[in-house]
Input
Amino acid sequence: MAMGFTPHSKADALTILFQLNQTEGLQIRKDGGWIPIKLLPNAFVVNIGDIMEIVSSGIYRSIKHWAIVNSTRERLSVATFYSSQLDTELGPSPSLIDPDNPAIFGGSLWTVEKYFKEFFARKQNGKSYIDFMRIEGGQQM
Output
């Protein structure tokens, strides 16, 4: 059975992926196009997730990506996901916010647990959920 994933970003802070074979399939969105990730033997692929983008106030951007199907070869990989504790308040790190660098994401009303619940309750569609957390004109969307 072949199964791919629709374009999405990860909800966590970091995802570390180890490709067990050399079958390509992971692609990232860049400049309006899809770029295949070139596999290096015995190397990890590290994805920045939405939580890292929120905590860094956009300094580190989560990446929209997807996995495409190879109909002739199986693609095997192992992923580990890293995030904060579920009861952690989710928002930009205060040390990164100042008058020249205002917060671009809301916080203090959200915990990591609430973010995960809301994220996974929606259909994965690009980066639509992190966009919900953005502040526009000083107001949370």
Q: What stands out?
A: The radius of gyration is 16 Å. DSSP finds three helices and eight strands in the chain. Confidence is low (pLDDT under 50) at residues 137-141.
